[in-house]
Structure to design on (740 residues):
């Protein structure tokens, strides 16, 4: 042991057993063993993959992404045909995933906050009903809720030819999906869109002015109603002046299915509803715990200043509770996004269904496809966390 | 000290990662396990289904049973694994099954790109369409705008896209995983049309409560040569599958059945039958099996014709005529290489 000679005489010479029994070395020993085991595991996995690829005579390549996909996808937000390449099929799937995740997160948040607040209601019936809802949804796997929603739609709703046409042709529920009116943009609709945007800006400025006025004089204006009027009235006025530039295309039964209008497939509806309701139950619990974490003194102080209960909630409690609610909310958004891969169970063509499903199967590129799908979910999850963390920092308590 | 230990650990890691040895011959593995692992579909009436006792029966499992009989002399030495259109190739490539007998269409890319070896075709099929008679549709050309149920991960999915594109028609695909799921959706009228191989459609329709309300459209839009398959790279194993199937077809051609096989072996003077049953030559030994391999394979479930008639033939509820799947000598295209 050459090392031992480096030590001065009064230090006891190094012995091998000191690696375990001497505190100075023990942590190094353990860490090095851990690193070695970890690298062994990784090395074994990689060599296993390489060996299996060699055994099968396959090579690791992403060239298949540029070959024609040759299959059709029902819900596509961009131009796609069966002649488009596999990467485009993957993009169609990615967009389908993102739409589902985005709408799901919005619906789950609205529902979750409402339910969480209602669970704390002093009304016995309301709070108990919300408890039942939360416990019911939290404790059953989300896949079952998705399948239940999907089965309910396809088994209980009528086929297109027997389907009732509701709201004067505006809404047709069928066992294949829901047909709704779609807007037709005619000339002049651009002007209307600009007016709408201007109204939004106007409403924002009004809000600022009203707040400034309240700060200066204490007078509270009916901001909500005035804002609504600013947004709606000019658009409505010019809509008729310009000769109704935005028409509606109504669904009509032609041949096998309804044509025209918009079509929301059952697979999407089932997923959206089930994922939103399921995640909302978790968010409701986050909201409840966030609110309960705010000391009761805050409420009492607000009441003693004369604030009514709803303003107490909106202006005093929720802004403080948000700081506690947001970090777990991020993980609920991530859960919802990742759970959307259960789409495969009801035939919704998300990224798992296109790239991780049909493309994988038709090309036989399991490793490449799955790595890409996993990479996608990783990136999306990190992006959601990143954005939400920025938001969290903006509402968190500022240490000054 | 630290550096030394780290180097040591790295070295150990590097040595230990030297890969596991390449897999041994499939036949040896199968013999060591004592049973054959066979991939079948999740259930298509006539082609693959479980009977009241829970045992797999049907046109496809029968081939695996014949193969098990050829290897072990025991038609029951099979472990069946149900696979969907999506999971089947992974199951075979990963070694979860040794042979896939599952209404699988032989194609270039599956052979060359996915690295599988196909045995001779055991069922010549084509893709068809099933609709309700009440729709009043008489041709696949009238299907523009229809909602179509289709199993994902199949060749039918690709044919369908090609066919509708070639004919300038649109459709709404409803992707589903299994035949049972398709049946449920189709019967609930969640899709107007169900498309898959014509044999599968006939089989599915036979299981309906009112088969008469549904019809197959006259168009057959593709060639679907269905064949059993194994992994690339083990020729001996592929040969066992190939020649088990050839033996069954040759047996029908030569009039050897499950019932008369023993008698034929003892008494037949025809050289072709004597070779087929192992009375002459040592074909079985050359395959790595016993010389009674072909006799056992035939006795397991009968020759090709017997299997066909038992599970999917005209006298069954499925009621599929032999058609292309008749022997070449009787007007079909079934033509097996001779055992010699």
């Amino acid at each position: 042991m050459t090392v031992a000679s480096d030590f001065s005489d009064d230090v006891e010479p190094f012995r091998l057993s000191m690696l375990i029994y001497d505190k100075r070395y023990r942590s190094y020993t353990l860490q090095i063993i851990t690193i070695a085991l970890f690298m062994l595991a990784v090395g074994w996995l990689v060599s296993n993959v390489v060996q299996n690829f060699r055994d099968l005579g396959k090579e690791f390549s992403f060239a298949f992404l540029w070959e024609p996909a040759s299959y059709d996808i029902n819900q596509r937000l961009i131009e796609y045909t069966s002649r488009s390449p596999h990467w485009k099929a993957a993009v169609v799937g990615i967009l389908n995933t993102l739409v589902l995740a985005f709408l799901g997160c919005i619906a789950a948040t609205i529902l979750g906050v409402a339910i969480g607040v209602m669970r704390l209601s002093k009304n016995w019936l309301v709070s108990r009903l919300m408890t039942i809802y939360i416990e019911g949804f939290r404790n059953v796997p989300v896949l079952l809720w998705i399948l239940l929603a999907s089965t309910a739609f396809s088994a209980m709703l009528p086929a297109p030819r027997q389907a009732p046409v509701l709201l004067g042709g505006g809404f047709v529920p069928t066992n294949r999906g829901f047909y709704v009116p779609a807007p037709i943009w005619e000339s002049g609709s651009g002007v209307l869109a600009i007016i709408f945007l201007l109204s939004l800006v106007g409403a924002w400025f009004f809000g600022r002015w009203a707040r400034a006025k309240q700060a200066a004089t204490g007078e509270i204006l009916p901001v909500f109603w005035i804002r609504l009027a600013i947004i709606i009235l000019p658009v409505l006025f010019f809509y008729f002046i310009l000769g109704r530039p935005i028409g509606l295309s109504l669904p009509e039964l032609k041949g096998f299915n309804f044509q025209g209008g918009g079509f929301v497939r059952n697979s999407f509806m089932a997923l959206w509803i089930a994922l939103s309701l399921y995640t909302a139950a978790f968010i409701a619990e986050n909201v409840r715990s966030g609110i309960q974490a705010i000391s009761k003194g805050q409420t009492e102080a607000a009441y003693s200043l004369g604030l009514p209960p709803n303003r107490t909630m909106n202006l005093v409690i929720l802004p403080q509770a948000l700081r506690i609610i947001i970090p777990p909310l991020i993980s609920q958004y991530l859960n919802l996004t990742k759970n959307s891969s259960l789409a495969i169970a009801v035939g919704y063509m998300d990224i798992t269904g296109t790239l991780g499903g049909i493309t994988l199967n038709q090309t036989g590129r399991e490793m490449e496809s799955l790595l890409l799908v996993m990479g996608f979910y990783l990136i999306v999850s990190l992006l959601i966390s990143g954005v939400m963390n920025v938001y969290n920092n903006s509402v968190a308590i500022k240490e000054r | 000290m630290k550096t030394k230990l780290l180097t040591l650990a790295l070295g150990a890691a590097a040595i230990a990662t030297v890969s596991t040895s390449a897999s041994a011959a499939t036949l040896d593995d199968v013999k060591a396990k004592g049973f054959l692992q066979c991939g079948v579909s999740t259930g298509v009436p006539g082609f693959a289904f479980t009977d009241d006792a829970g045992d797999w029966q049907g046109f496809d499992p029968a081939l695996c049973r014949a193969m098990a009989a050829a290897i072990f002399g025991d038609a029951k030495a099979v472990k069946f694994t149900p696979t969907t259109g999506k999971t089947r190739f992974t199951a075979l490539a990963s070694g979860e099954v040794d042979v896939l007998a599952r209404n699988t269409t032989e194609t270039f890319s599956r052979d060359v790109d996915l690295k599988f070896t196909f045995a001779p075709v055991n069922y010549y099929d084509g893709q068809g369409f099933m609709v309700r008679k009440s729709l009043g549709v008489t041709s696949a050309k009238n299907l523009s705008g229809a909602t179509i149920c289709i199993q994902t991960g199949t060749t039918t999915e690709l044919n369908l896209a090609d066919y509708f594109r070639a004919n300038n028609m649109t459709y709404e695909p409803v992707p589903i995983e299994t035949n049972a799921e398709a049946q449920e959706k189709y019967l609930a009228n969640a899709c107007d049309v169900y498309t898959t191989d014509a044999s599968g459609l006939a089989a599915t329709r036979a299981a309906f409560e009112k088969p008469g309300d549904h019809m197959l459209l006259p168009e057959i839009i593709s060639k679907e040569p269905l064949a059993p398959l194994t992994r690339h790279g083990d020729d001996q194993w592929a040969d066992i599958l190939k020649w088990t199937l050839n033996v069954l077809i040759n047996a029908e051609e030569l009039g050897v059945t499950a019932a008369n096989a023993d008698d034929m072996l003892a008494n037949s003077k025809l050289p072709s039958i004597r070779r087929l049953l192992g009375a002459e030559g040592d074909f079985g030994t050359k395959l790595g099996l016993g010389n009674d391999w072909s006799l056992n394979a035939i006795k397991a479930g009968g020759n090709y014709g017997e299997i066909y008639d038992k599970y999917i033939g005209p006298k069954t509820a499925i009621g599929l005529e032999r058609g292309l799947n008749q022997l070449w000598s009787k007007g079909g295209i079934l033509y097996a290489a001779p055992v010699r």
Q: What stands out?
A: Chain B has two domains: 26-124+226-330, 127-222. Chain B touches chain A through 56 residues (CB under 8 Å). Residues 1-6, 8-23 of chain B have pLDDT under 50 and may be disordered.
